[in-house]
Write a structure and sequence with these properties.
With 267 residues, chain A is mainly alpha-helical. In chain A, 81% of the residues lie in helices and 0% in strands. Chain A starts with a helix and ends with a helix. In chain B, helix 2 (15-41) crosses helix 3, helix 2 packs across helix 4 (89-114) and helix 4 runs antiparallel to helix 5 (127-157). Classes of the chains: A mainly alpha (267), B mainly alpha (165).
Protein backbone atom coordinates (compact mmCIF):
# COMPACT_ATOMS: atom_id res chain seq x y z
CA UNK A 1 0.00 0.00 0.00
CA UNK A 2 2.76 2.40 0.95
CA UNK A 3 5.28 2.00 -1.80
CA UNK A 4 8.23 4.36 -1.93
CA UNK A 5 6.61 6.25 -4.77
CA UNK A 6 3.43 7.21 -2.91
CA UNK A 7 5.42 8.14 0.22
CA UNK A 8 7.62 10.47 -1.79
CA UNK A 9 4.46 11.90 -3.32
CA UNK A 10 3.12 12.64 0.16
CA UNK A 11 6.36 14.32 1.15
CA UNK A 12 6.20 16.61 -1.85
CA UNK A 13 2.71 17.56 -0.77
CA UNK A 14 3.79 18.34 2.82
CA UNK A 15 6.75 20.31 1.45
CA UNK A 16 4.27 22.60 -0.28
CA UNK A 17 1.73 22.56 2.54
CA UNK A 18 4.24 23.66 5.18
CA UNK A 19 6.80 25.43 2.98
CA UNK A 20 4.44 28.01 1.52
CA UNK A 21 3.03 29.21 4.88
CA UNK A 22 6.61 29.39 6.24
CA UNK A 23 7.70 31.62 3.36
CA UNK A 24 4.51 33.63 3.71
CA UNK A 25 5.08 34.14 7.44
CA UNK A 26 8.63 35.43 6.90
CA UNK A 27 7.45 37.69 4.08
CA UNK A 28 4.58 39.13 6.12
CA UNK A 29 6.76 39.72 9.16
CA UNK A 30 9.47 41.52 7.20
CA UNK A 31 6.81 43.47 5.29
CA UNK A 32 5.23 44.59 8.56
CA UNK A 33 8.62 45.62 9.94
CA UNK A 34 9.34 47.74 6.85
CA UNK A 35 5.88 49.31 7.05
CA UNK A 36 6.03 50.10 10.75
CA UNK A 37 9.58 51.48 10.53
CA UNK A 38 8.62 53.78 7.66
CA UNK A 39 5.98 55.51 9.76
CA UNK A 40 8.70 56.93 11.97
CA UNK A 41 6.18 57.80 14.69
CA UNK A 42 7.33 54.85 16.80
CA UNK A 43 10.65 53.44 17.90
CA UNK A 44 12.42 51.38 15.23
CA UNK A 45 11.57 47.67 15.38
CA UNK A 46 14.60 45.82 16.86
CA UNK A 47 16.56 43.92 14.22
CA UNK A 48 17.19 41.11 16.69
CA UNK A 49 13.46 40.35 16.76
CA UNK A 50 13.33 40.05 12.99
CA UNK A 51 16.34 37.74 13.11
CA UNK A 52 14.71 35.68 15.85
CA UNK A 53 11.51 35.29 13.83
CA UNK A 54 13.28 34.25 10.63
CA UNK A 55 15.45 31.77 12.54
CA UNK A 56 12.38 30.37 14.32
CA UNK A 57 10.48 29.83 11.08
CA UNK A 58 13.55 28.27 9.44
CA UNK A 59 13.99 25.82 12.34
CA UNK A 60 10.32 24.90 12.22
CA UNK A 61 10.53 24.47 8.45
CA UNK A 62 13.62 22.28 8.80
CA UNK A 63 11.50 19.82 10.79
CA UNK A 64 8.61 19.91 8.31
CA UNK A 65 10.16 20.25 4.89
CA UNK A 66 13.09 18.64 3.13
CA UNK A 67 15.58 15.95 4.13
CA UNK A 68 15.01 15.84 7.92
CA UNK A 69 11.33 14.95 7.63
CA UNK A 70 12.13 12.21 5.10
CA UNK A 71 14.76 10.77 7.40
CA UNK A 72 12.56 10.97 10.48
CA UNK A 73 10.08 8.70 8.76
CA UNK A 74 12.44 5.79 9.33
CA UNK A 75 14.78 7.08 12.02
CA UNK A 76 13.49 7.94 15.50
CA UNK A 77 16.57 9.99 16.40
CA UNK A 78 16.00 12.25 13.40
CA UNK A 79 12.34 12.44 14.36
CA UNK A 80 13.29 13.61 17.85
CA UNK A 81 15.68 16.23 16.48
CA UNK A 82 12.76 17.51 14.42
CA UNK A 83 10.51 17.48 17.47
CA UNK A 84 12.98 19.62 19.44
CA UNK A 85 13.21 22.13 16.60
CA UNK A 86 9.48 22.23 15.87
CA UNK A 87 8.03 21.97 19.37
CA UNK A 88 10.57 23.84 21.48
CA UNK A 89 13.25 25.95 19.77
CA UNK A 90 11.13 27.40 16.94
CA UNK A 91 8.23 28.40 19.25
CA UNK A 92 10.66 30.11 21.64
CA UNK A 93 12.40 32.07 18.88
CA UNK A 94 9.08 33.09 17.33
CA UNK A 95 7.66 34.13 20.71
CA UNK A 96 10.79 36.24 21.33
CA UNK A 97 10.11 38.03 18.05
CA UNK A 98 6.87 39.48 19.55
CA UNK A 99 4.74 38.87 16.43
CA UNK A 100 1.51 40.04 18.06
CA UNK A 101 3.05 43.35 19.09
CA UNK A 102 4.22 43.83 15.53
CA UNK A 103 0.76 43.08 14.14
CA UNK A 104 -0.88 45.47 16.60
CA UNK A 105 1.58 48.19 15.63
CA UNK A 106 1.13 47.67 11.93
CA UNK A 107 -2.67 47.46 11.78
CA UNK A 108 -4.76 50.61 11.77
CA UNK A 109 -6.36 51.62 15.05
CA UNK A 110 -9.77 50.16 14.21
CA UNK A 111 -8.43 46.69 13.37
CA UNK A 112 -5.91 46.77 16.22
CA UNK A 113 -8.75 47.37 18.67
CA UNK A 114 -10.67 44.43 17.26
CA UNK A 115 -7.62 42.22 17.56
CA UNK A 116 -6.90 43.26 21.12
CA UNK A 117 -10.54 42.56 22.02
CA UNK A 118 -10.03 39.07 20.59
CA UNK A 119 -6.86 38.65 22.68
CA UNK A 120 -8.84 39.59 25.78
CA UNK A 121 -11.54 37.02 25.05
CA UNK A 122 -12.14 34.01 27.26
CA UNK A 123 -11.33 31.78 24.30
CA UNK A 124 -7.76 33.08 24.00
CA UNK A 125 -7.48 33.21 27.79
CA UNK A 126 -8.36 29.53 27.99
CA UNK A 127 -5.70 28.37 25.55
CA UNK A 128 -2.97 30.59 26.99
CA UNK A 129 -3.68 29.45 30.56
CA UNK A 130 -0.44 27.85 31.82
CA UNK A 131 -2.19 24.66 32.92
CA UNK A 132 -4.15 24.25 29.67
CA UNK A 133 -1.11 25.02 27.53
CA UNK A 134 0.99 22.53 29.50
CA UNK A 135 -1.58 19.78 29.15
CA UNK A 136 -1.93 20.42 25.42
CA UNK A 137 1.83 20.37 25.00
CA UNK A 138 3.11 17.66 27.34
CA UNK A 139 -0.15 15.66 27.33
CA UNK A 140 -0.10 15.65 23.55
CA UNK A 141 3.42 14.23 23.56
CA UNK A 142 2.44 11.48 26.03
CA UNK A 143 -0.44 10.59 23.73
CA UNK A 144 1.85 10.53 20.70
CA UNK A 145 4.60 8.36 22.15
CA UNK A 146 2.73 6.02 24.48
CA UNK A 147 -0.11 5.02 22.14
CA UNK A 148 -0.22 3.74 18.57
CA UNK A 149 -0.49 7.30 17.37
CA UNK A 150 3.22 7.48 16.55
CA UNK A 151 3.02 4.47 14.24
CA UNK A 152 -0.30 5.60 12.78
CA UNK A 153 1.12 9.03 11.99
CA UNK A 154 3.59 7.45 9.60
CA UNK A 155 1.00 5.64 7.54
CA UNK A 156 -1.75 8.24 7.64
CA UNK A 157 -1.08 11.40 5.70
CA UNK A 158 -3.72 13.51 7.45
CA UNK A 159 -2.56 12.44 10.92
CA UNK A 160 1.01 13.35 9.99
CA UNK A 161 -0.11 16.89 9.19
CA UNK A 162 -2.34 17.29 12.25
CA UNK A 163 0.28 15.98 14.68
CA UNK A 164 2.95 18.31 13.32
CA UNK A 165 0.70 21.35 13.45
CA UNK A 166 -0.31 20.40 16.99
CA UNK A 167 3.29 20.00 18.15
CA UNK A 168 4.18 23.46 16.91
CA UNK A 169 1.04 25.24 18.14
CA UNK A 170 1.11 23.56 21.56
CA UNK A 171 4.80 24.42 21.89
CA UNK A 172 4.03 28.02 21.03
CA UNK A 173 1.12 28.27 23.49
CA UNK A 174 3.29 26.68 26.17
CA UNK A 175 6.05 29.24 25.55
CA UNK A 176 3.80 32.32 25.56
CA UNK A 177 1.98 31.15 28.68
CA UNK A 178 5.33 31.00 30.52
CA UNK A 179 7.22 34.06 29.28
CA UNK A 180 5.33 37.24 28.56
CA UNK A 181 6.84 39.01 25.56
CA UNK A 182 3.72 40.00 23.63
CA UNK A 183 0.85 41.77 25.39
CA UNK A 184 -0.85 39.32 27.78
CA UNK A 185 -4.34 40.06 29.06
CA UNK A 186 -4.67 37.03 31.32
CA UNK A 187 -1.62 37.21 33.53
CA UNK A 188 -0.41 34.82 36.21
CA UNK A 189 2.09 35.45 38.98
CA UNK A 190 5.70 34.33 38.69
CA UNK A 191 5.15 31.79 41.46
CA UNK A 192 2.11 30.30 39.73
CA UNK A 193 3.92 30.02 36.41
CA UNK A 194 7.02 28.57 38.08
CA UNK A 195 5.05 25.83 39.85
CA UNK A 196 3.07 24.87 36.72
CA UNK A 197 6.19 24.77 34.63
CA UNK A 198 8.19 22.68 37.06
CA UNK A 199 5.41 20.09 36.77
CA UNK A 200 5.32 20.41 32.98
CA UNK A 201 9.08 20.08 32.61
CA UNK A 202 9.00 17.09 34.93
CA UNK A 203 6.36 15.57 32.63
CA UNK A 204 8.66 16.10 29.66
CA UNK A 205 11.66 14.60 31.47
CA UNK A 206 9.66 11.61 32.71
CA UNK A 207 8.33 10.97 29.21
CA UNK A 208 11.82 11.00 27.72
CA UNK A 209 12.97 8.41 30.27
CA UNK A 210 9.81 6.41 29.63
CA UNK A 211 10.62 6.32 25.90
CA UNK A 212 14.14 5.18 26.79
CA UNK A 213 12.69 2.22 28.68
CA UNK A 214 9.64 1.52 26.51
CA UNK A 215 10.28 2.44 22.86
CA UNK A 216 7.16 3.47 20.92
CA UNK A 217 5.66 0.74 18.72
CA UNK A 218 7.86 0.02 15.72
CA UNK A 219 10.93 1.89 16.98
CA UNK A 220 14.15 -0.15 17.45
CA UNK A 221 15.56 -0.02 21.00
CA UNK A 222 18.84 1.63 20.03
CA UNK A 223 17.15 4.43 18.12
CA UNK A 224 14.65 4.96 20.94
CA UNK A 225 17.47 5.33 23.47
CA UNK A 226 19.46 7.86 21.48
CA UNK A 227 16.25 9.72 20.66
CA UNK A 228 15.14 9.72 24.30
CA UNK A 229 18.48 11.11 25.43
CA UNK A 230 18.30 13.77 22.77
CA UNK A 231 14.81 14.66 24.00
CA UNK A 232 15.98 14.75 27.62
CA UNK A 233 19.12 16.86 27.22
CA UNK A 234 17.87 18.94 24.29
CA UNK A 235 14.71 19.65 26.27
CA UNK A 236 16.82 20.73 29.23
CA UNK A 237 18.78 23.15 27.06
CA UNK A 238 15.72 24.90 25.65
CA UNK A 239 14.05 24.83 29.08
CA UNK A 240 17.11 26.51 30.57
CA UNK A 241 16.61 29.40 28.13
CA UNK A 242 12.92 29.62 29.05
CA UNK A 243 13.65 29.57 32.80
CA UNK A 244 16.37 32.16 32.34
CA UNK A 245 13.97 34.53 30.53
CA UNK A 246 11.24 33.97 33.14
CA UNK A 247 13.56 34.85 36.02
CA UNK A 248 15.12 37.73 34.09
CA UNK A 249 11.65 39.25 33.81
CA UNK A 250 11.11 38.72 37.54
CA UNK A 251 14.50 40.37 38.20
CA UNK A 252 13.49 43.40 36.15
CA UNK A 253 10.03 43.59 37.74
CA UNK A 254 11.33 43.77 41.33
CA UNK A 255 13.92 46.42 40.49
CA UNK A 256 14.19 48.74 43.51
CA UNK A 257 12.64 52.03 42.36
CA UNK A 258 13.98 54.14 45.17
CA UNK A 259 17.51 53.83 46.43
CA UNK A 260 16.79 56.34 49.20
CA UNK A 261 18.44 54.33 51.94
CA UNK A 262 21.73 53.92 50.11
CA UNK A 263 22.14 56.64 47.51
CA UNK A 264 19.60 59.25 48.52
CA UNK A 265 21.07 59.98 51.92
CA UNK A 266 24.64 60.02 50.70
CA UNK A 267 23.81 62.66 48.08
CA UNK B 1 28.54 55.89 57.93
CA UNK B 2 25.11 55.99 56.41
CA UNK B 3 26.17 53.46 53.82
CA UNK B 4 27.31 50.86 56.33
CA UNK B 5 24.15 51.34 58.32
CA UNK B 6 21.96 50.97 55.24
CA UNK B 7 23.97 47.96 54.15
CA UNK B 8 23.30 45.99 57.32
CA UNK B 9 19.68 47.19 57.38
CA UNK B 10 19.16 45.72 53.93
CA UNK B 11 20.68 42.44 54.99
CA UNK B 12 18.27 42.16 57.90
CA UNK B 13 15.29 43.08 55.72
CA UNK B 14 16.24 40.43 53.17
CA UNK B 15 17.55 37.79 55.60
CA UNK B 16 15.04 35.19 54.44
CA UNK B 17 15.81 35.86 50.80
CA UNK B 18 19.49 35.25 51.61
CA UNK B 19 18.70 31.85 53.10
CA UNK B 20 16.34 30.86 50.28
CA UNK B 21 18.68 31.88 47.52
CA UNK B 22 21.32 29.71 49.19
CA UNK B 23 19.00 26.73 49.64
CA UNK B 24 17.81 26.86 46.02
CA UNK B 25 21.26 27.29 44.56
CA UNK B 26 22.82 24.63 46.82
CA UNK B 27 20.12 22.15 45.93
CA UNK B 28 20.42 22.83 42.21
CA UNK B 29 24.19 22.74 42.32
CA UNK B 30 24.41 19.37 44.08
CA UNK B 31 21.76 17.89 41.79
CA UNK B 32 23.74 19.17 38.81
CA UNK B 33 27.03 17.75 40.17
CA UNK B 34 25.36 14.39 40.81
CA UNK B 35 24.07 14.23 37.27
CA UNK B 36 27.22 15.40 35.49
CA UNK B 37 29.81 13.68 37.65
CA UNK B 38 28.20 10.36 38.50
CA UNK B 39 25.76 9.87 35.65
CA UNK B 40 27.58 11.29 32.68
CA UNK B 41 31.31 11.32 33.40
CA UNK B 42 31.93 8.35 35.69
CA UNK B 43 28.89 6.32 34.56
CA UNK B 44 28.58 4.97 38.09
CA UNK B 45 24.87 4.98 37.75
CA UNK B 46 22.98 5.45 34.57
CA UNK B 47 20.40 7.59 32.88
CA UNK B 48 17.83 4.96 33.74
CA UNK B 49 18.31 2.06 36.13
CA UNK B 50 15.05 0.36 36.93
CA UNK B 51 12.07 0.09 34.68
CA UNK B 52 9.77 -1.26 37.37
CA UNK B 53 9.59 1.61 39.82
CA UNK B 54 7.20 4.15 38.34
CA UNK B 55 7.44 6.27 41.43
CA UNK B 56 11.19 6.49 40.95
CA UNK B 57 10.74 7.91 37.47
CA UNK B 58 8.24 10.48 38.64
CA UNK B 59 10.25 11.61 41.65
CA UNK B 60 13.43 11.79 39.57
CA UNK B 61 11.69 13.85 36.91
CA UNK B 62 10.16 16.24 39.41
CA UNK B 63 13.43 16.71 41.20
CA UNK B 64 15.32 17.28 38.02
CA UNK B 65 12.85 19.93 36.83
CA UNK B 66 12.85 21.56 40.25
CA UNK B 67 16.63 21.65 40.49
CA UNK B 68 16.87 23.18 37.02
CA UNK B 69 14.57 25.99 38.14
CA UNK B 70 16.28 26.24 41.53
CA UNK B 71 19.76 26.80 40.08
CA UNK B 72 18.70 29.64 37.80
CA UNK B 73 16.21 31.12 40.28
CA UNK B 74 18.70 30.98 43.16
CA UNK B 75 21.30 32.89 41.15
CA UNK B 76 18.77 35.54 40.14
CA UNK B 77 17.89 35.95 43.83
CA UNK B 78 21.59 36.52 44.54
CA UNK B 79 21.76 39.12 41.77
CA UNK B 80 18.75 40.85 43.33
CA UNK B 81 20.36 40.85 46.79
CA UNK B 82 23.60 42.28 45.41
CA UNK B 83 21.73 45.03 43.62
CA UNK B 84 20.06 45.91 46.93
CA UNK B 85 23.36 45.73 48.74
CA UNK B 86 21.79 43.04 50.89
CA UNK B 87 23.90 39.96 50.19
CA UNK B 88 24.75 38.36 53.53
CA UNK B 89 27.50 35.85 52.85
CA UNK B 90 27.17 33.92 56.09
CA UNK B 91 23.40 33.44 55.60
CA UNK B 92 23.85 32.63 51.91
CA UNK B 93 26.50 29.99 52.59
CA UNK B 94 24.40 28.57 55.41
CA UNK B 95 21.48 28.18 53.00
CA UNK B 96 23.72 26.73 50.30
CA UNK B 97 25.11 24.00 52.55
CA UNK B 98 21.67 23.28 53.99
CA UNK B 99 20.05 22.96 50.53
CA UNK B 100 22.89 20.94 49.04
CA UNK B 101 23.12 18.64 52.06
CA UNK B 102 19.36 18.13 52.22
CA UNK B 103 19.26 17.09 48.56
CA UNK B 104 22.17 14.71 48.98
CA UNK B 105 20.63 13.13 52.07
CA UNK B 106 17.26 12.76 50.30
CA UNK B 107 19.01 11.18 47.32
CA UNK B 108 21.12 8.91 49.51
CA UNK B 109 18.34 7.66 51.77
CA UNK B 110 14.97 7.88 50.03
CA UNK B 111 16.01 7.42 46.40
CA UNK B 112 18.91 5.01 46.87
CA UNK B 113 17.70 2.96 49.82
CA UNK B 114 13.94 3.16 50.23
CA UNK B 115 12.76 3.44 46.61
CA UNK B 116 15.93 1.78 45.29
CA UNK B 117 15.85 3.71 42.01
CA UNK B 118 19.57 3.42 41.62
CA UNK B 119 22.65 2.89 43.77
CA UNK B 120 25.81 4.99 43.78
CA UNK B 121 27.83 2.16 42.22
CA UNK B 122 27.27 -1.40 41.17
CA UNK B 123 29.27 -4.61 41.66
CA UNK B 124 31.25 -3.23 44.60
CA UNK B 125 30.73 -3.21 48.33
CA UNK B 126 28.24 -0.36 48.53
CA UNK B 127 28.50 0.33 52.27
CA UNK B 128 31.55 2.68 52.24
CA UNK B 129 30.01 4.68 49.40
CA UNK B 130 26.69 5.01 51.21
CA UNK B 131 28.46 6.06 54.42
CA UNK B 132 30.59 8.72 52.72
CA UNK B 133 27.58 9.98 50.75
CA UNK B 134 25.19 10.30 53.68
CA UNK B 135 27.66 11.40 56.36
CA UNK B 136 29.01 14.17 54.13
CA UNK B 137 25.38 15.19 53.52
CA UNK B 138 24.73 15.30 57.28
CA UNK B 139 27.88 17.37 57.84
CA UNK B 140 26.79 19.86 55.17
CA UNK B 141 23.37 20.20 56.82
CA UNK B 142 24.90 20.67 60.29
CA UNK B 143 27.43 23.28 59.12
CA UNK B 144 24.71 25.06 57.12
CA UNK B 145 22.38 25.30 60.11
CA UNK B 146 25.34 26.36 62.26
CA UNK B 147 26.18 29.23 59.90
CA UNK B 148 22.57 30.44 59.80
CA UNK B 149 22.28 30.39 63.59
CA UNK B 150 25.63 32.13 63.94
CA UNK B 151 24.59 34.82 61.44
CA UNK B 152 21.43 35.43 63.47
CA UNK B 153 23.52 35.79 66.62
CA UNK B 154 25.89 38.27 64.88
CA UNK B 155 22.88 40.39 64.09
CA UNK B 156 21.51 40.25 67.63
CA UNK B 157 24.73 41.16 69.41
CA UNK B 158 25.82 43.59 66.71
CA UNK B 159 28.99 41.78 65.72
CA UNK B 160 30.88 41.77 62.44
CA UNK B 161 29.19 43.79 59.74
CA UNK B 162 26.55 44.86 62.25
CA UNK B 163 28.84 46.81 64.51
CA UNK B 164 28.59 50.48 63.61
CA UNK B 165 31.32 51.62 65.94
Amino acid sequence: MHDAHSIEHHFLLTDLLFGIPALLAVGLYIGAVVLTNRRGRLRKWPGLRTLSFVAGVLFAAAALVGPLVRQSHADFTAHMAGHLLLGMLAPLLIALAAPMTLVLRTLNVHLARKLSRLLQSLFVGFFTHPVVASILNIGGLWLLYTTDLYAAMHSNFLLHIIVHIHVFLAGYLFTISLVYIDPVFHRFSYTYRTVVFILALAGHGILSKFIYAYPPAGVPVEQARVGAMLMYYGGDTVDLLLIFILFKHWYQSVRPRKLVSTVGKAV
Amino acid sequence: MHNTQAHSDNRVTFARRNIWSGILFGLGFVAFLDETLFHQLLHWHKFYDKSTVAVGLVSDGLFHAFSWFATVGGLFLVADLRRRNALWHKMFWGGKLLGGGAFQLYDGTIQHKIMRIHQIRYNVDILPYDLVWNISAAIMIAVGIGLIVSARRDKRIGKGAFSHA
